[in-house]
Amino acid sequence: MLQLRDSVDGSGEAALMVPAAEADVPFTPPGDLPSSSSSLPPRQTLRPLSVRNPTRGGRLKEYFVFRPGTIEQAVNEIRVVVLPTEDGEVQSVWLLTEIDHWNNEKERLVLITDWSLLICKYDFISLQCQQVTRILLNAVDTISIGEFEFPPKSLNKREGIGIRIQWDKQSRASFINRWNPWSSNVPYATFTEHPMADADEKIASLCQLENFKTQLIQAVKKAHKECPLPGRANGVLVLERPLLIETYLGLMSFINNEAKLGYSMTRGKIGF
Fold first, then answer.
1. What SS3 class is residue 72?
2. Quick check: 246 pLDDT over 60?
3. Rounded Cα–Cα distance for residues 110 and 131 (Å)
4. CA neighbours closer than 13 Å in the CB half-sphere of residue 261
5. Cα–Cα distance between 228 and 42 in angstroms, integer?
6. 61 Cβ contact list (under 8 Å, min separation 6)
7. pTM exceeds 0.85
8. 214: number of Cβ within 10 Å
9. CB distance 245 to 160 below 8 Å
10. Residues 6 or more apart from 150 whose CB is under 8 A from it?
11. CA geometry: angle 197, 198, 202, nearest 5 deg
12. What percent of the chain has pLDDT over 70?
């Protein structure tokens, strides 16, 4: 802090005084060190330059999926699990966030093929495909689009719009599966946009929920028409309605979503 001396020198000009505790010590390169060590401060601490960028563009680097070449390698590896006899050709690839029945966010690669919807759990840190869930498009009977809805007394809610895909004529999971946070036996899948969907122009087209909805509806209608399931009414019902997530306390999902544990990210000196 700069202070102005109260008295005035003989020259009539006010003098500026800098407290010694706050005086800056200039950095001297090793080759220019003076011959006498008496002019050096008794102790110097040099720290590496660390600049934090809090903007969305800066945060983009924290996600492994947005690193150059990562998503291309992931898609090439996942194409290996596509079965031409069951799935047909890959029509489009999407980077979305899946929201499970306990409101946990999970980063997912989603592939729309001729006859299937492939939901891929991919580790973008180790570059390994860990799990693929295959949903036959001709088994999809309802596609719902709308805002998320929670019970009135729920303590952990979310905002935004999502899309829910239901199959096998079931709208809800059984009581046991509904209250089991690790259950994967749920007859629907819910997606929303990736949190960094609009941060990178190169990958933004892979994250747009509206375009995903349009292509999914077209693919499902085509599958119902060309490969109907015998013994059941075919066709898909497209609805605009709230998407109910039945969580009340939501402590586990709160920790998971706040820490972004469902995403492949850098976390300090480690990646998780």
1. helix
2. yes
3. 12
4. 10
5. 83
6. 67, 266
7. no
8. 11
9. no
10. 156, 157, 158, 244, 245, 246, 247
11. 90
12. 73
pLDDT of res. 118: 96
- Alpha carbons 156 and 250: distance in angstroms, whole number: 5
Radius of gyration of the chain (CA): 28
Bridge partners (DSSP) of residue 147 are 161
Q: How confident is the model at residue 268 (pLDDT cuts 50, 70, 90)?
A: low
Tokens of 23: 């005086």
Contact (CB, 8 A) for 91 and 75: no
d(CA 221, CA 237): 10
Residue 124: pLDDT over 70: yes
Q: Reduce the DSSP state of residue 73 to 3 states and report it.
A: helix
**Would strands 140-149 and 243-244 be described as parallel, antiparallel, or unpaired?**
parallel
Contacts of 129 (CB under 8 A, 6+ apart): 74, 77, 78, 81, 120, 121, 122, 123
> DSSP letters of 107-137?
EEEEEEESSEEEEEEEETTTTEEEEEEEEEG
